[in-house]
Specification:
The protein is α/β, with parallel strands linked by helices. About 40% of the residues lie in helices and about 15% in strands. A 6-stranded parallel beta sheet has the order 3-4-2-1-5-6, with helices on both faces. Helix 1 crosses helix 2, helix 2 packs parallel to helix 3 and helix 3 runs parallel beside helix 4. Bound molecules: 3-methylbut-3-enyl trihydrogen diphosphate (IPE) (2 copies) and magnesium ion (MG).
Length: about 240
């Protein structure tokens, strides 16, 4: 029975929000905010490495973000390629294993190939697993899991009465990744925006007004300190 949150921090998930507002505050176009996000990602990987965290999931692009203006979406996709190409050597040197969650098939060919090459290259690494949530939606993930399970019930290999919570978890995109212990959201918004709906059942939430491009190592350490003093009960008693 897990009880002390401080002793149990395997998976940090971050909703990286506020890039557009960061740019607007400086009188810059929104895309400059996405540009400025890279340093914060770098810091998050660095801090997780120092602390020996096993998994870091970064919400980079949601299924709903496709509804943004075409120019912004295409800028973000180009940025994704640039990020991978510019950071793969460093990530590999740091023993980081890169993975993704979401509908990778929706990502344009160029960045998707860059991602696939980077995942292939780092697949044997044994340090931090960095999961980029791309074209990710919690409802889409659950829908995809339910389709697979429904196929198994239709073929008769599983009877509906035998469907368990573990079975649903096992049909999610990355079934080997543990549920996030803490979900941090920057920029002052206090909502999930379709992130990890199933997996967040017992996650701790840390909301900070800091905009993502201003969220550096110090701010992440502060957020983790807030997590550390929480008492997780998982429905039981202390
Ligand atoms: C987060 O920043 C990045 C993505 C969702 C891709 P936003 O672009 O949402 O920035 P705000 O919320 O408009 O400030
Ligand atoms: C959530 O941010 C998605 C990502 C950070 C990738 P949004 O900016 O898209 O969320 P809403 O629209 O404010 O809920
Ligand atoms: Mg936003």
């Amino acid at each position: 029975m897990k009880s002390d949150s401080g002793a149990n921090l395997r998976h940090i998930a971050i909703i990286m929000d506020g890039n557009g507002r960061w740019a607007r505050k400086r009188g810059l176009p929104r895309i400059k905010g996405h540009d400025a996000a890279e340093k914060s990602i770098h810091d998050a990987v660095e801090v997780c490495g120092e602390l020996g965290i096993e998994f870091l999931t970064l919400y980079a692009f949601s299924t709903e973000n496709w509804s943004r203006p075409k120019a912004e979406v295409s800028f973000i996709m180009k940025l994704l390629s640039r990020f991978i190409k510019g950071n793969i050597d460093d990530l590999d040197r740091k023993n980081v294993k890169l993975r993704t969650t979401g509908r990778l098939q929706d990502i344009p060919d160029g960045p998707r190939r860059d991602l696939e090459l980077a995942m292939e290259r780092t697949s044997g690494n044994t340090g931090l697993t960095l999961v980029l949530a791309l074209s990710y939606g919690g409802r889409a993930e659950l829908r995809d899991a339910f389709v697979e399970i429904a196929e198994n019930t239709a073929s008769g290999s599983v009877s509906p009465a035998d469907i368990t919570e573990e079975m649903i978890s096992a049909h999610l995109y990355n079934s080997d990744v543990p549920d996030p212990d803490v979900i941090i959201r920057t920029s002052g918004e206090q909502r999930l925006s379709n992130f990890l709906l199933w997996q967040s059942a017992y996650s701790e939430f840390v909301f900070t007004p800091v905009l993502w491009p201003d969220f550096h190592a110090e701010q992440l350490r502060d957020a983790l300190e807030e997590y550390r003093i929480r008492k997780r009960r998982f429905g039981g008693l202390e």
